[in-house]
Specification:
It contains five helices and no strands. With 122 residues, it is mostly helical.
Length: 122
């Protein structure tokens, strides 16, 4: 019984350390933290950008979840940045609807792309 409890305790400790490492990496990388901040402010109106986002997307159905986008085959930071900077809908009633212009600076689009890719499953 003691051995089983110890294994469970070690597993919990490992999970806590992994979570702490992810948070310390985020603090050590200001671009990643900025990308998350921008995504929560701008992108969360249409996308689920974080598991703990304050409000659900207004768009119904929601645009693709950031985790789903991050795990698409072939997705790159450059591809995400290009999409964010160039793919916009031109008319209010144009169909199919495309993403509106988030009006991000290029360096902010880079930060959002880095944050999005940080959500990729290992």
């Amino acid at each position: 019984m003691h051995g089983k409890s110890m294994k469970i305790g070690m597993g919990v400790l490992a999970l806590m350390m992994a979570a702490g490492t992810a948070k310390s990496e985020e603090r050590a990388n200001p671009a990643l933290a900025r990308g998350e901040h921008i995504a929560r402010l701008v992108c969360s109106a249409c996308h689920n950008v974080a598991a703990d986002q304050e409000f659900p997307p207004l768009l119904n159905p929601a645009a693709p979840d950031f985790r789903e986008i991050a795990n698409r085959p072939g997705i790159t930071a450059a591809g995400v940045r290009h999409f964010v900077m160039t793919t916009h809908w031109n008319a209010p009633h144009a169909l199919p609807m495309r993403m509106p212009d988030p009006m991000l600076l290029p360096e902010d689009a880079d930060c959002v792309a880095r944050y999005l890719l940080s959500l990729r499953k290992p």
